Amino acid sequence: MSDIRSEILSTGIPELKSARIIIDAPAAKIFDIIARPSLHPKIDGSNSVKGVNWGPERLSLGAKFGMQMKIGIRYKITNVVVEFKENELIGWRHLGRWVWRYELKALSANQTEVTESFDGRPSPLQWWLKARNSYSYVEKAVAKTLVRLKKYAETGA
């Protein structure tokens, strides 16, 4: 499984970075992994998500959850779920207003196409995102996250 790659998608929108992968698991199982903040450090391809500070065990629309992060320095961030459709769509944002979104499409009972996106368009902090080269960095991070999600969903490791 080490040679598994996700496909980085060309969205045509500089502030929208997406990747896609096919996972051999039911959509409900994959969605349940994504909807549990305690599992985010296991699947995070950016290696910036370090743990959960507080929040529900499982996310739902409007749920708030706090995460321990590290990008250079350690910090804490509060996220809120702004998009939610059970087993199909979940997205959250924080103070910066960019959205992390997962879209799931069942291809069969045991195979699911998952697209993860970083949508920077809602953010008033475009200058900061561009100064930190966030868009090229996050494009690779979402691709790596999907590979880790696939491994976790298929093997539990």
Task: Describe, in plain words, how this protein is organized in 3D.
The protein has 157 residues and is an alpha+beta fold. The protein has a single domain, classed as Alpha-D-Glucose-1,6-Bisphosphate, Chain A, domain 4 (2-Layer Sandwich), CATH 3.30.530.20. 25% of the residues lie in helices and 39% in strands. The protein is built from 4 helices and 8 strands, in the order ββααββββββαα. Strands 1-2-8-7-6-5-4-3 form an 8-stranded antiparallel β-sheet, with helices on one face. Strand 4 and strand 5 form a beta hairpin. The radius of gyration is 15 Å and the shape is globular. The chain starts with 6 loop residues before the first strand and ends with a helix. The mean pLDDT is 95.
